């Protein structure tokens, strides 16, 4: 038995069952170097997953982040960031305020993860508006704790045996151009698709289910990640913003997976020219080293009394130093990400034409989804083909992860060179040839 299989067996025995899929992705990582991962049997893999958009700056992290961590370790790691003050969290908060959309005063709450950033967003929206209800989108993912679990609607298994989760969330279809309840071709007719979604919210949710004045916020991902790397029509968020403003509802933009340069802009929502009232980020802000999450919001929405919300690790000095560096480096990588976008768009476009099992290809920057179908006309999802592509890619030394029902995501570290990107796309093509 390989060492990998031995570790997987021990893992199975001692660790909680989470999202591992040992049949399709039996990868036991021992170390990482740039965009490459090495397993316990010393096999080398090109990583097209960035550990789900966490290691956007590669492995173990960007050299400048590592240097900053080592320096900070000689000064301070943790010192009760929500009871004592420290300069590091203030500096990171100031930077986040500067780098996020919206030319208005903002404040920041720090946590440890994406779900915690979204939980804070829920509390901020409820307390500031005095309203109890929320809208989120089918296919969306916002976390797995009981508040965010209610917002999450990408796979029903995530909610298995958990009812009741937080009450008060209503779900609307996301304007997925390839697959939507109205069977509109959203690439050909983007405005029609957007209008249908808005009508659904106004005519079904607000007219029949609950009045708009009871809604505190609308949660969305600018591009759905776990739901399949789905890019909505460009006009969608401007129209959603108009609807939200009409009813005094807050827009909550979950940038946990798409933020920090992944789409070629600092934040995914920048492609849509909308400034959300609340923006959440996590994953890549950690530099792949120190877990952190952040909720950035209009200053006027802040909690009015000490103690209404807090935590233990928020404002951790080490995490703050990492976040500052990550923001700087991610910003400097934006032109590079935009340059590589064309390479992915062209090659994946060709792949869609050549392979009958590839139904849809969509993406921005270095955030790409490829959806597998058994028939391009019926669009029947081909889950087995998707899983086999992941296995065949791994056999050839390429790490990719699934998303949606029958899609894969291609999301390499933003630091990847053009040559490495070409190698990865070549291996992906080989995996498709072996499968389809
Ligand atoms: C868009 C989005 N929001 C929230 C989360 C939850 O983040 P975490 O797993 O850090 O709690 C994720 C995780 O995949 C995510 O992709």
TrEMBL record:
The keyword Transferase applies. PROSITE patterns: AA_TRANSFER_CLASS_3. One of its GO terms (biological process) is lysine biosynthetic process. It comes from the Archaea. It holds the Pfam family Aminotran_3. Gene3D superfamilies: Aspartate Aminotransferase, domain 1 (3.90.1150.10), Type I PLP-dependent aspartate aminotransferase-like (Major domain) (3.40.640.10). Its cofactor is pyridoxal 5'-phosphate. The keyword Amino-acid biosynthesis applies. GO terms for molecular function: identical protein binding; pyridoxal phosphate binding; transaminase activity. Keywords: Amino-acid biosynthesis, Aminotransferase, Lysine biosynthesis, Pyridoxal phosphate, Transferase. NCBIfam families: PRK05769.1. Belongs to the class-III pyridoxal-phosphate-dependent aminotransferase family. PANTHER family: AMINOTRANSFERASE CLASS III, LEUCINE_METHIONINE RACEMASE. This is Acetyl ornithine aminotransferase family protein. It comes from Thermogladius calderae.
């Amino acid at each position: 038995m390989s060492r990998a299989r031995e570790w997987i067996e021990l893992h199975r025995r001692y660790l909680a069952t989470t999202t591992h899929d040992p049949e399709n992705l039996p990868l036991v990582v021992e170390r990482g170097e740039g965009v490459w991962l090495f397993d316990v049997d010393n096999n080398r893999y090109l990583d097209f997953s960035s550990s789900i958009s966490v290691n956007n700056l590669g492995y173990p992290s960007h050299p400048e982040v590592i240097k900053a961590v080592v320096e900070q370790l000689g000064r301070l790691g943790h010192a009760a960031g929500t009871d004592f003050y420290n300069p590091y969290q203030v500096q990171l908060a100031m930077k986040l305020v500067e780098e996020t959309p919206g030319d208005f005063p903002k404040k920041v709450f720090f946590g440890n993860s994406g779900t915690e950033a979204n939980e804070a967003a829920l509390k901020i929206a409820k307390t500031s508006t005095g309203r109890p209800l929320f809208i989120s989108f089918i296919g969306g993912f916002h976390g797995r704790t009981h508040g965010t679990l209610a917002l999450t609607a990408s796979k029903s298994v995530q909610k298995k045996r958990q009812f009741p989760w937080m009450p008060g969330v209503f779900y609307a279809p996301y304007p997925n151009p390839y697959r939507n309840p109205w069977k509109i071709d959203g690439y050909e007719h983007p405005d029609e698709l957007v209008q249908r979604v808005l009508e659904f919210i106004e005519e079904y949710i607000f007219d029949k289910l609950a009045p708009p004045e009871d809604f505190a916020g609308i949660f969305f991902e600018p591009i759905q990640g776990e739901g399949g790397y789905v890019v909505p029509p460009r006009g969608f968020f401007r129209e959603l913003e108009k609807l939200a403003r009409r009813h005094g509802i807050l827009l909550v933009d979950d940038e946990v997976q798409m933020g920090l340069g992944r789409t070629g802009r600092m934040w995914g929502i920048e492609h849509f020219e909308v400034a959300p009232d609340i923006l959440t980020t996590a994953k890549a802000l950690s530099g792949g080293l120190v877990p952190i999450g952040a909720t950035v919001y209009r200053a006027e929405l802040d909690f009015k009394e000490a103690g209404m919300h807090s935590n233990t690790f928020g404002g951790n000095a080490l995490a703050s130093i990492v976040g500052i560096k990550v923001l700087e480096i991610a910003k400097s990588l934006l032109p590079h990400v935009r340059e590589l976008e064309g390479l992915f768009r062209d090659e994946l476009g060709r792949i869609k034409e050549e392979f009958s099992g590839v139904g849809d290809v969509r993406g921005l920057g270095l955030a790409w989804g490829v959806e597998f179908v058994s028939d391009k006309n019926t669009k029947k999802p081909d889950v087995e083909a998707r899983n086999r592509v992941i296995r065949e890619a791994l056999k050839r030394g390429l790490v990719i992860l699934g998303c949606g029902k029958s899609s894969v995501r291609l999301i390499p570290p933003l630091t990847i060179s053009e040559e490495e990107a070409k190698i990865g796309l070549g291996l992906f093509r080989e995996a498709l040839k072996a499968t389809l």
